[in-house]
Structures are given as C-alpha cells and as structure tokens.
Design goal:
Layout (H helix, E strand, L loop, with lengths): L3 E4 L5 H12 L3 E6 L3 H12 L5 E5 L5 H14 L5 E4 L14 H29 L2 E6 L2 H5 L5 H21 L4 E8 L12 H10 L8 H12 L10 E4 L6
Parallel strand pairs: 1-2, 1-4, 2-3, 4-5, 5-6, 6-7
The structure holds NADP nicotinamide-adenine-dinucleotide phosphate.
Amino acid sequence: MSKVALVTGASRGIGRSIALELARSRISVAINYNSSEEMAKELLCEIKKFNENVNIYKADVSNEREVSEMVHKINLDLGEIDILVNNAGISQIGLFTDMTSLERDRMIGVNLIGAMKVTKAILPSMIHYKRGSIINISSMWGEVGASCEVVYSASKAGLIGFTKALAKELAPSGIRVNCISPGVIETDMNSELSSTDIKELIDEIPLNRIGTPDDIAKAVKFLISDNAKYITGQVIGINGGMVI
Ligand code: NAP
C-alpha cells in the first residue's frame, strides 16, 4: 500500500509543487484548499494523469470542524495519513500598529493554530501505528524577524517552537517532526513586490536568485524519505544563503 500524505494549502504555490512531487513518488496525496477550488481541480487533473490515488479536500485549516471532517474523508478515500505537510499560510505587509485585532488573530489562527489543529486531528492514527512524518513550513522571517511583517514573523517563529517541542514529544512514538524555513520564493505571496523590490532582494541573496516552489518540494521529498530517518526537530533553511 502506498503512503498517504496531506498537504495543506496545496491549490497554489509551494503546496502545489509539494503535492506534485509527492504524487510523482507514488504517494497518495490529499490536496487541501480553502478558496481556490478551480486551481485545486486543475492540479487534481494533472496528478491523475500519472497517479490515481489523489483527491481534493476543501477546509479552512483554522476551522476545527472543517479540519476534522476533512481528515475523516481522507481516511475513507485514501487511508490513514502517514505524512503531513502544514503549508497553508497567509501574509500581510504593513506596520504592526496598523494591523487590526481581527487581521492579527486571523494570521495566527491560520499560520500557527491552523497547523496545530490539523496536526492534532491526524496524530491519533500516527501514534497508533507508531510511524509518521510531519513537516511545518515556516519562514526565514520566523528565524530572524521582518519589519512590517511582525505578526507573520511571530506566527512562523511559533511554528519553529511547535516543531522542536512536538519532535521531542513524538520521537518515542516513531514520528519525526521537522520544519522548512523558506527564503523568498516565487509565488502569489510575493506578487505585490515590484520588479525593483525583487531586484533589490536578489542583490541580498548569495546564490543570486529567488527560490522556486520546486526548491522546497525537493527538500520535503528528502525529509520524508528514509534518507532522513535520523533527522527530527530540525529547521532546514532554504533561502539561497540569505539567512545563515
Ligand atoms: P500562496 O501562493 O499565497 O499560497 C497559499 C496557499 O495557502 C494557498 O493554496 C491557499 O489556499 C492556502 N491557504 C491560505 N489560507 C488557508 C486556509 N485558511 N486554509 C487552507 N488553506 C489556506 O503562498 P506560498 O508562497 O505558496 O506559501 C506557502 C507557505 O510557505 C506559507 O505558509 C508561507 O507562509 C510559506 N512561505 C512562503 C514564502 C514565499 O516567499 N512565497 C517564504 C517563506 C514561507 P486557497 O487559495 O485555496 O485559499
């Protein structure tokens, strides 16, 4: 039987590339999305050309009921989840003092508490079978902090703490928990940056280019493999050398 992976926020960007990479490795893939149904359906069709074991699941990761219904459906359709990639996330640029309480709570609710809700929903079966791999997608701003992305940075720093503590708690159950910390990656999340902004960013990146979603997907593929079986509780920076 093939392994089963849930990738949250897989309709677009980094999550989409991760879902494709895992499906190419003959893993059954649950594609989670929240609002981009057409893009999720388009990805489903693309994967079905080479892997039948795939489906799409709508759920807002910050909504506990929707998360629990999604996990229940995945278990029925594809089987118990062996691999979880907590990728769903939102960002907002602006001064901390200009952010409303609602915007702040939404960002923490999706980026940090959403990952906790999905993780809690899938853990009983991983603990029962004493196997599993969880990967949280943080950000280099969670490591070093970004001006004008204060709450985003806090949510991503929280994911790093969540990863390290959960890795210790779950290691006796044979479950590994790791974190990927991307730098600047070419997705819709950075679509508001002007070409001048991008050029200035590239000047700060030692490897002299913006990252691609595929750069992250390849690292996920490694972390879930047996080649990484002694790696847990780690934060893997994929940022072209921008944060070391
Ligand atoms: P993106 O292109 O904006 O895609 C975000 C994805 O998250 C979409 O699939 C979206 O689904 C999903 N999502 C958002 N809110 C959700 C919710 N409440 N429930 C379920 N899914 C939700 O962003 P990206 O660049 O691929 O980012 C993916 C992850 O990488 C995020 O956690 C982000 O913080 C992190 N990251 C990105 C960068 C970067 O430079 N791009 C750098 C560091 C870290 P729908 O469209 O269906 O709503």
